[in-house]
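In this supplementary section we document a worked example of the pipeline. Step one takes a protein sequence of length 434 as its only input; no multiple sequence alignment statistics are reported here. Step two produces a three-dimensional model, which step three serialises into structure tokens for compact storage. The input and output of this example are shown verbatim.
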Amino acid sequence: MSVIIKSVLKGSIADKKGLKPCDTLLSIDGNEIMDVLDFRFYQNNEKLKLSYINSKNRIKTVKIKKAEFEELGLEFETYLMDKKHSCRNKCIFCFIDQLPKGLRDTLYFKDDDSRLSFLFGNYITLTNITEHEVERIIKMHISPINISVHTTNPELRVKMMNNKNAGEALKIINRLNDADIKLNCQLVLVPEVNDGEELERSLKDLTALKNVECIAAVPVGLTRYREGLAEISPFNKEASLKTIEIIDRFGDECIKKYGNRRVFAADEFYILAEKKLPEASYYEEFLQLENGVGLVSLFESEVFEAINLYDYNLDKKRIITVVTGEAAFPFISEMVDNIGKKWDNLNCKVKCIKNDFFGGKITVAGLVTATDILKQLKGEELGEELLIPSVMLRDGKDMFLDSITLEELSQKLNIKITPVDNDGYQFLDKILGI
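The serialised model returned by step three reads:
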């Protein structure tokens, strides 16, 4: 495979060597360039031999001397230099299969791309990875790799993912571990499918591997759009408590064996179990925040640190509203109450948005839509500003999942809307209007 050069930066090394837009890059130092990882890895050396096809369809080779890690100045059609790899599985719990029709096209794309795992932290199933990619990860020592494991039982993995190769792909985990590639693993748990004894089996297998840095167990998310899909029950309090018990037991064993916990349950399990969340220190390096592991505890600790540190004079009345999902509502309310105890000029209401769009079983803030916010807040006295979690937004951070933009919602509610990251200090800044 070869890649076409879209543009050459003026004055760059490639420009000075005569490369032009529409030339085709073939190799660097004899290594075929197939995508962004090949290109970025092989362009780093101080001395290079670069081969390409020019506009006259002739193969040209140029020798280059440069500083280590200095960019060549080539730009390509896409960041990856080719198309994203899509998922070939048909998982019984796939959230994308549970989306309603009529949303924007990008929401229906299922990526399963090892390059995105390294570059952006995306999770891959290993069912879509080629032998070339496996060997490249090992050769380049690309680390960490994030893997959606779900179960280490090969037969069960085939059934859960509806892919005959899903079980065989588990062998790649051992190859990567043996090559000292750090691995972060995700287990989406389905009640009476891969929890209980099957969860114990998966944790036993994964915690035996020294390079598995972190394992996150996440409860299956179920929308109301499951017609024609596998029948799945949500986690209840009892099943959630049992799951936490198993995870804590294996985490304690990892502390004895490795000196760190490694195995964690997503915050949602504690909420479902009506169990107090662990302190922030429990989560060590917070390696799986994107899976909702330790998000609440980290956020709370940052907010309370900020409250104690800030000596800000709120010299006039400030009336605002904060919205969140059902799962986070009790925690956000508690934090706002504590902020109000220090700044008595603050009048901050916290509004819980029920997820009617996706159904009552979806309670996380990141899946709240503008449609539900508008429906549930229309006509309310919201004050001078509305704060929303930034995780509600997609597509360049200005659009909700239901394709309504921040500006459109702001106009319909007639209020300034400010997104807030999952950062306790920023949350307090925005609450106080700093």
